[in-house]
Design brief:
CATH superfamily of the largest domain: Jelly Rolls
Radius of gyration: 20 Å
Shape: globular
Strand order of the largest sheet: 2-8-4-7-9-10
Structural class: alpha+beta
Number of helices: 12
Number of domains: 2
Keywords: DNA-binding, Transcription, Transcription regulation
Helix content: 40-55%
InterPro entries: AraC-bd (IPR003313), Homeodomain-like_sf (IPR009057), HTH-like (IPR037923), HTH_AraC (IPR018060), RmlC-like_jellyroll (IPR014710), Tscrpt_reg_AraC-type_HTH (IPR020449)
GO molecular function, one term: DNA-binding transcription factor activity
CATH topology of the largest domain: Jelly Rolls
Protein name: Helix-turn-helix domain-containing protein
Distance between the termini: 39 Å
Pfam families: AraC_binding, HTH_18
């Protein structure tokens, strides 16, 4: 699949792009994409997956996430409920440096914006507190939207109520060609993880020798490809285990494994328990 570089086009009378999607509409870019803008996303409700850089986690009852520039990610939304709403706010570094930072009152945002390189997932209580603010955007004019955005940004920066999805910034400064190659690898894994994937097949997919591929992937992500693949598949297994009608064997095969002992070993390494123990803990919580 050809990597997608998202071009964020701003209207001449706006400083940032604010878009919203309901149950009948969705973001145009569903696959892996990248852009140089900051992105703040509010999802009202429903369940889905947050795929960002080399991390994939599930969310329930919506999400509020903030990520910095040039971080590969997939669409975060879902269509679980008719009343769902996804609000996406995007703004560039020029807006930060030439507009926000010109006001001494906004310079406290600097550290908060820098943290977005590690991707911030805010807690549910804060998401609910700001729900009315996000859901009001469709009814506001341009002036009201920028004021509302600054109110939201101040509320987020003033509260230490988030967790970081990335332990460190894994993507070093790189060329568009390198970013495109990495996105192609992510897309390949995302579309083919249920089947046979090896370092050799992934290397061939992006036109590299196996040795060159291994060096490239480690340089770009800070981890070996096999480690990334296992982490990705185990996160998919966790999502599947939430379907109580599936057996452990079905989850194993659908997440790309064919060896039960290897699957259990990788699951325990990544999640700290066996698949059966994890599944039973979900049943106890139900």
């Amino acid at each position: 699949m050809k990597p997608i570089f998202e071009s964020i086009d701003l209207a001449s009378d706006t400083s940032l792009k604010i878009a919203w999607y309901d149950h009948k509409s969705s973001c145009d870019l569903m696959d892996w994409h990248i852009h140089p803008e900051y992105e703040l996303v509010y999802i009202k409700n429903g369940s889905g997956t947050l795929s960002v850089d080399t991390e994939t986690i599930s969310y329930h009852n919506g999400a509020l996430i903030f990520l910095g520039p040039n971080i590969p990610h997939a669409d975060f939304g879902n269509r679980d409920f008719p009343d769902n709403l996804e609000v996406v706010i995007q703004f560039n570094e020029e807006f930060v440096q030439q507009k926000l930072m010109n006001f001494p009152e906004f310079r406290s945002f600097r550290n908060f914006l820098r943290l977005s390189n590690k991707v911030l997932l805010f807690d549910q209580d804060l998401k609910m507190e700001l729900a009315e603010a996000f859901e009001s955007f469709p009814s506001l004019n341009s002036t009201q939207k920028i004021i509302r955005f600054l109110q939201i940004l101040e509320a987020l920066a003033d509260r230490d109520r988030y967790k970081t999805l990335l332990d460190r910034v894994t993507l070093i400064p790189c060329s568009p060609k390198e970013v495109g190659r990495l996105e192609a690898i992510f897309n390949y894994v995302n579309s083919s993880f249920e089947g046979e994937i090896s370092t050799c097949t992934a290397a061939a997919h992006v036109g590299l020798t196996t040795n060159s591929f291994c060096r490239f992937f480690k340089k770009m992500t800070g981890k070996p490809f096999v480690q990334f693949l296992n982490e990705f598949r185990i996160n998919k297994a966790v999502e599947l285990l939430e379907d109580k009608d599936l057996t452990i064997s079905e989850v194993m095969y659908r997440s790309g494994y064919s060896d039960a002992s290897y699957f259990t070993k990788q699951f325990k390494r990544n999640k700290g328990s066996t698949p059966s123990y994890y599944q039973n803990s979900l049943k106890r919580l139900a």
